[in-house]
Specification:
The chain has about 300 residues and is of the alpha/beta class. Helix content is about 40%, strand content about 15%. The longest helix has 24 residues. The relative contact order is 0.15.
Length: about 300
Amino acid sequence: MKRNIKLNIKSEITFVIVSLESINNLKKCIKNIGENYKIIIAENSNNSRIKNEIESNFINAECILLGKNYGYATAANRGISYVKTKYAFLINADIQIYENQIIKIEKEINSLNKNFFIASPFYDDFKDFIENNKFDKITNLNQKIHQQSKYEKVNILKGSSMIFNLSNFKEKIFDEEFFFFFEEIDVCKRLFSTGGSIYLINTIKIEHSGNYGVENVNSHAMNKFRNWHYYWSSFYYHKKHYGFYISIKIHITKLIKFFLLKNLYKIFNKNKAEMFQSKFAGLLNSVSGKKSSTNKNFGGR
């Protein structure tokens, strides 16, 4: 019934939020964005209560139930496929962004015109993310962030905030083999290799709480999940871009180390043993060519 109401939205930005039953984060995020922007939630479940609660309280929001947990990349692609505007603004449910900031962001990306593929406003943990994490072991995608100009070209962005200029993307944006981790690094690496431009907007700062958009989960279980997928995705990413043998060369020492430590810690520290087991299992499954979706207990970000 509410879906038949025609919205008078003039913005060329549509927000896409990937969620896994994160109703409280979603409501706070949507409230902050306001009513003047179309919002699409790609919900990694079949929870009709979340859909009903969101759509009955927020006239500009549409919740797409995916039926089960497909992970971040697939859910993001699905959400983006519903976007009819020029720009898709993919964010986590734990991002805090407000209407006055969005107005400025739209003005800035319009001034870039078609010269960008992806952009993002600055956010709390971005500097550490790009300067101190060497995701790609072959190509140096890390760089210093100077923040001395309105726009700054960067090599990578964090998946918690990415504005896509959809006119520059003709196919699905994310590789759906990734379930969690490295999906945004993969997109940025492809653009880095083909000359596609990525911009950081330094004049606008948003906040990211960093809880991965997932609610009510056991922290130990979440850490095991993250470890499993980080190493699965790291091996797959390097295999995809540099070949199987290069990826084996990069990861073989870790595979042996995790195997030894998981057995050592079984004797006196069960929690640490489980952490190393999850790292070992994720890496081994990736080496063996098994799908990342074999481990899908969580799927926000």
